[in-house]
Amino acid sequence: MTDKNKYLPIIQIGNVLVSPELFTERFCCDLDVCKGACCIEGDAGAPVTPDEIAGIEDALDTVWNELSAGAQAVIDRQGVAYTDEEGDLVTSIVNGKDCVFTCYENGCCLCALERAWRNGRTSFCKPMSCSLYPIREKTFRDGTVGLNYNRWKICECARRKGAELDLPVYKFLRQPLIRRFGEEWYRELEKAAEELLG
């Protein structure tokens, strides 16, 4: 981030507080390099809502045979999600770190749920927390939502590729942001970006 952008304000659109890093940071997933590491690294699963758990459970039969035996055993034992040490609902994990919905294709880790959705086999894509990454969403007690940029070392290749393409985070995540907040909200976000950065 340049000195010029260092002290940009948080923007509010509706009830959503948006970190200026969504406009100033560059990002574009580079699966050829990272091989889907975000699905198999970390110490907890992906944050999920109760509605998303229901969606995952509806899609479970569709993807069941694509999951590892270990993942199937974890789901049989504790379900598709659990409450982590911080009290958050997250997807179940296997081997202490891998999301139970990981599957592999050409040496790359993919989401079985998303692959089924892309192939038209299910109506549920994947948890919104996964779709929005590297944006992290937090809901406050008054219902206000905060969107922050999360910097993770395994995504260094995505930052490089984003810089090469000059692709801001909010543009890279256009479709997930529209799915989460709607077309009109995203148009307001684009206007805010133009005004913020001139």
TrEMBL record:
It comes from Xylanibacter caecicola. InterPro entries: Rv0495c (IPR021458). It holds the Pfam family DUF3109. This is DUF3109 family protein. Belongs to the Rv0495c family.
